[in-house]
Write a structure and sequence with these properties.
By secondary structure, this protein is α/β, with parallel strands linked by helices. It is about 40% helix and about 10% strand. The protein is elongated, with a radius of gyration of 23 Å.
């Protein structure tokens, strides 16, 4: 018997390689709409949010839905690089041979982006995840690297994704030219209390008659756990009934679920989310 079956779960909702359940929330739909706008319009976009808010998940879903005949998606999360290493890595991701010198990489990247855009009729969609770790030298080069025809054309869509402090960094005077080029800027706030009732852990648990809507309690809106799990508290009267009739198997399953909820709340409190 699998250990998660022992506790009344259909699968383990805490593992990355388990079943992926996407909750269709208003914020997710808004994010996808803005990302579609970025892909069609081209230019620079910024997506921020706290840890566990689902930035990479929504980006992965959006990128998978792009037409490969119209878009060439390039994803990288290797952001702790020097400027020249960043050029070499981007050139390799584009499928061209990187050079040793920075000017050669600059020219190679621009020529490949122009070739994809003009000859292949494909829009390069360059996604830089964990962009909050990018140093100032790379941020200064981004607006130069994607300058085409004397800054009169956008040939690619560039999405920077990271923690909220990335937005604060781009607001600095030194990065004002790049910040003014953003055509999309969105911050993921998290699920609402009602939306948080349906998520990975609730989908992993079969419906239980002991859980009533009147007694459902959700994690705080600021908690990152709200993005992937939500817990329900059982009716105390049902506990007494189970104890009286001796249904300890069902009582054990419900107790385990409440234990999971308590663990989540304790961790959230320790990290200052409550």
């Amino acid at each position: 018997m699998e250990y998660f079956t022992r506790y009344g779960l259909e699968f383990n909702p805490f593992l990355k390689n388990s079943r992926e359940i996407l909750v269709d929330t208003n914020e997710r739909r808004e994010t996808l709409f803005r990302l579609d706008y970025l892909a069609k319009t081209k230019g620079f976009g910024l997506l921020t949010g706290g840890a566990g808010r689902g930035k990479t998940t929504v980006i992965r879903t959006w990128a998978a839905g792009l037409n490969p005949s119209l878009y060439k998606v390039i994803y990288t999360s290797l952001s702790t690089l020097t400027a020249n290493d960043f050029y070499r890595n981007l050139a390799q991701e584009l499928g061209v041979q990187p050079s040793f010198r920075k000017p050669d990489n600059f020219r190679t990247i621009q020529e490949e982006i122009a070739r994809l855009s003009l000859e292949k009729r494909k829009t390069p969609v360059i996604i830089i995840d964990e962009a909050n770790y990018i140093n100032n030298a790379i941020l200064n080069d981004l607006k130069i690297l994607f300058n085409f025809e004397m800054d009169s054309r956008d040939r690619a869509a560039v999405l920077l994704a990271g923690l909220p402090k990335l937005n604060s960094t781009l607001r600095l005077a030194i990065h004002e030219p790049l910040y003014r080029r953003l055509i999309m800027n969105y911050n993921l706030e998290g699920l609402s209390k009602e939306e948080g009732r349906v998520s990975s852990i609730s989908c992993a648990m079969p419906a239980c008659s002991l859980v009533t809507a009147a007694n459902q309690k959700s994690l705080p809106p600021t908690s990152p756990c709200r993005q992937s799990m939500t817990a329900n508290l059982a009716d105390p009267e049902s506990f007494m009934h189970l104890m009286c009739v001796g249904d300890f198997e069902t009582l054990n399953k419900v107790t385990i679920r409440l234990y999971i909820v308590c663990c989540i709340c304790v961790v959230s409190a320790q990290n200052g989310y409550i």
